[in-house]
Amino acid sequence: MKRFLLVPAMTAAIIAITAGAAYASQYIAYEGRGFTGRSVVIDACGVSNIPFNGSYKWYGDGQSGRMYNQRDAKGVMHFELASNRNAEQRTPVGWKSIFIVC
């Protein structure tokens, strides 16, 4: 009888974890203009340094992104990417770090 209770509980936990991971804002930094070259996806909560500044895409899916012109989110926030809208720029940006608000 315990076996029957454990399987639904484990299934529910897996579904909850998967669903949570599927809905997270993402900042994609590209090495070159026009979304070319190497890229990195940043979707972790908190501070992340941005290694590429050639262009970017933002997929706002629940969390906003605070953009800084200095590493480690130091100094004054320069811009905030919306939590509910996508954005992109095909030309270089000066942002050095992002703080994803979770």
From TrEMBL:
Q: Which domain of life is it from?
A: Bacteria
Q: Which residues cross the membrane?
A: none
InterPro entries this protein is in? Answer: Antimic/Inh_G_crystallin-like, Antimicrobial_MiAMP1, G_crystallin-like
Keyword Signal among record annotations: yes
Protein's UniProt name: MiAMP1 protein
Q: Which GO terms describe its biological process?
A: defense response; negative regulation of growth
Question: Is Cell wall biogenesis/degradation among the key words of this record?
Answer: no
